[in-house]
Structures are given as structure tokens and as C-alpha cells.
Design a protein that fits this description.
about 400 residues, elongated, mainly beta, Endonuclease - Pi-scei, Chain A, domain 1, 2 domains, three-stranded antiparallel β-sheet
Length: about 400
């Protein structure tokens, strides 16, 4: 059985306005009071960002659901499938041992953020279970503990976002993968300066149709740009998504001109005699995370959250970002699977050929694998050679 880690905020770390009387667990419970089926207009919630922790749930199914009990039994009820705690959980003054609570997706609440986005809050409830004496399964003994805390399905709101109630629904089946968004594709962090026909422009300000300077094809129109924010809970649960910071001058002389922050998978251009000997190519593209052996290239642990941007052109291009040469979005199969459903539909509408079974985009340069990229970085570090030597 798999163990799934969720971001988690306990009940005591939530607050709400316009609370109403309890209504059979049909609304958001905060401070011992539950929202009813339809809270008053303007009901808002907030939570203590610093109190965000994690909740580990062991499950034998691919989703998190409400009432996972085997119907038809009288007396003790056996779970239809497991959703048990793998860590101690304290509810009130009682600490519950590992494997003694069945956790449930009690209900979901749709919230509107003042950042213009909607968020799905998931209420987690708990019921006590005890081991089956026969050793076959655990069974329900009660009591029901009600809602013990919350998580979010999909993106978490940035710290300080004002959240307003929109509607709530009964607990549904939610795939475990939906709780923590994954992103393994190349992205620029917000604020990155991209060279365009207007000079350097923050990537946040670029729009479809803007002319961006490319290494191989001059000024090219931007066909698609997308972004998404990873908040502190996601970066805590998925540290592999933390951005990489390349300090100014660490790729070569004045390259980048200022610190460059990119996603771990974002590839940067390397041009060196070591690369030529290893790969038979004058220039190659290497993922930033493979270059961590180089001094001045590190995981940006100090960033509590990050907004990632993706740029797409008619072909894979090399662009100038903070003075360094880096890639645009490469439309390989894995990248398209990682951008999310809405973004994928937008991209496929622009480039329907990507649906062709034998379609293979042409990379702007040789794409180096992870193991080879790490070997390259080690050799550069050992020989104290820049990844991009100064022009003669």
C-alpha cells in the first residue's frame, strides 16, 4: 500500500467570519462551529501559514474518498479500503497511535481568492478503528471525531490571499496526485528578464505575439505563455520542485548578468571543450539541477514560493534570459503531460501535430541526460573551468 503525503492545517489554525450554527458536517468547521449548507454572503476564511504541516495517509486505493466503509454490515463496520494515519495524530487532548484512525474526505469547499483564482479546500475527518482480532482487516469502533483539519486539492493560495466562500459539496473521490501539483517541465521564475525587440522585459509582462530575440532565428513571435504559482505547502511537500538559482557570472564571464532563477528541469546552454569531448557537439543544453556541483548554482531554499512561466514558440528556441542563453518550452511528451489539462488543451489547439503518434520535436541543441549532465558538472568543477569560456 502507498503512503501519500498531504499538506495539512489543523482546525485550530483556521478562522472564519460569519460562522453559523452546526449543520451535520455540511459546512466548514472552524473553532468548533460549522458553516451550514450555504453560509452568509461574504463569508471569508484565513489560516496560519506558518502552521502548515504534513499528513501521511496509507491507502490501498488510487483516490481519497468519503465514507470508505463496507456497506451492509451491522455493528462494527469494516473499511471498504484503507485511508489510515501513519503518524500519531492529536485530537483535543488525545493522541491517536499510527493506524488507529480512518481518514476521510468529508467535504470540499470552493473558495474565491482575491488574486483572481479559485481554490478547492478539502475537509478531513477521522473515525477510530481497531485491529481485527482475526488479523484480516481493521474495523470501525468509533467515535467519529468530525473534521480535524484541512488540505487543498490542487494549488494552494499564496500567503495573505483573502478567501471568500463560493459553495461546498459532499466529499468526492479525489486522485491522490491531485493534492500536490507536480511540475517537471522547464520554467522561468517570475521577474526573469527576457530579451525582446523592446529590450529586456520581465517575463511576467510578455504576451502572445510579442517578439522575443532567439539565438538561431532572430526575433520570433511568442505563440503561447503560461504560468502557475507553487506556494510554500507544495514546495515543502515536493522539494524537488524548488527553483535553482544561478548566481551572476557563474556560467561564464558576466553570464548570467544578474542572478537567474529557473525550475530544476530548465536547460541552460553550455559551450566548452569538456562538453565537446564528451558529446561531440560544440554546444549542449543541460538541466539546471544537473549543475549543482558548480559553485554558485544552488537550490533557492530561501524562496517561500515561486511563480513559474513557460514560453512556447513555433519551434524549440534558445532565448536570452538575464543575459544567459536558455531554452524555451520543449514540446516533448513528458512536458505536455506536466503542464496541466487546460494548458495542454491550449497548446494542442495551436499545434495539433503534437497529437501525431510519431511526432518528435527537434531540439535546439543536443539535450544531455541527467547522468551525463552531472558528469559534465563534476568535470568542470574538478578542472575549475567555466561552462561558457570567455570569447578569445
Amino acid at each position: 500500500m502507498a503512503v501519500h503525503t498531504l499538506g495539512f492545517i489543523s482546525l485550530s489554525d483556521f478562522s472564519a467570519t460569519n460562522n453559523v450554527a452546526p449543520n451535520n458536517k455540511n459546512g466548514l468547521t472552524v473553532g468548533g462551529t460549522e458553516w451550514g449548507g450555504m453560509p452568509p454572503a461574504g463569508t471569508t476564511i484565513s489560516f496560519n501559514y506558518e502552521a502548515i504541516g504534513s499528513l501521511n495517509v496509507e491507502s490501498d486505493y488510487g483516490y481519497f474518498t468519503d465514507d470508505p466503509w463496507n456497506p451492509g454490515w451491522t455493528g462494527a463496520e469494516w473499511p471498504q479500503h484503507k485511508q489510515e494515519n501513519t503518524d500519531e495524530i492529536t485530537i483535543g487532548n488525545t493522541t491517536h497511535a499510527t493506524g488507529t484512525l480512518q481518514l476521510e474526505n468529508e467535504y470540499e469547499v470552493i473558495l474565491s481568492g482575491d488574486d483572481g483564482n479559485d481554490y478547492v479546500l478539502v475537509a478531513i475527518s477521522a473515525v477510530t478503528v481497531n485491529p481485527d482480532p482475526a488479523g484480516d482487516w481493521d474495523y470501525r469502533t468509533g467515535p467519529e471525531h468530525g473534521v480535524i483539519g484541512f488540505t487543498f486539492q490542487g494549488p494552494w493560495p499564496p500567503e495573505g490571499t483573502e478567501l471568500t466562500f463560493v459553495q461546498n459539496v459532499d466529499g468526492e473521490q479525489i486522485d491522490w496526485d491531485n493534492f500536490v501539483p507536480d511540475d517537471e517541465i522547464p520554467c522561468f521564475a517570475g521577474g526573469t528578464l527576457i530579451l525582446t525587440d523592446r529590450g529586456e522585459v520581465p517575463i511576467d509582462d510578455l504576451r502572445v505575439g510579442d517578439l522575443v530575440m532567439t539565438r538561431d532565428n532572430g526575433l520570433r513571435p511568442l505563440r503561447w505563455i503560461g504560468s502557475h504559482r507553487l506556494g510554500a505547502p507544495v514546495l515543502m511537500l515536493k522539494p524537488k520542485l524548488r527553483p535553482i538559482r544561478i548566481r551572476a557570472g557563474e556560467l561564464g564571464e558576466n553570464i548570467p548578468a544578474t542572478d537567474l532563477v529557473v525550475s530544476p528541469q530548465h536547460r541552460v546552454l553550455v559551450r566548452s571543450s569538456i562538453a565537446r569531448r564528451m558529446f561531440g557537439a560544440a554546444e549542449i543544453l543541460v538541466a539546471a539541477k544537473q549543475l549543482l556541483q558548480i559553485d554558485g548554482i544552488d537550490v533557492a531554499e530561501d524562496l517561500a514560493e515561486v511563480e513559474y512561466f513557460h514560453m512556447l514558440f513555433d519551434r524549440h528556441e534558445i532565448v536570452i534570459s538575464n543575459g544567459a542563453q536558455t531554452e524555451s518550452l520543449y514540446t516533448g511528451h513528458m512536458a505536455l503531460q506536466s503542464v496541466g489539462k487546460a494548458a495542454r488543451e491550449e497548446i494542442l489547439a495551436l499545434f495539433p501535430e503534437l497529437l501525431t503518434a510519431d511526432y518528435q520535436p527537434e531540439p535546439a541543441r543536443t539535450l544531455v541526460s541527467g547522468r551525463q549532465g552531472r558528469r559534465l558538472a563534476v568535470r568542470h568543477a574538478q578542472n575549475q573551468k567555466p561552462l561558457i569560456p570567455a570569447a578569445p
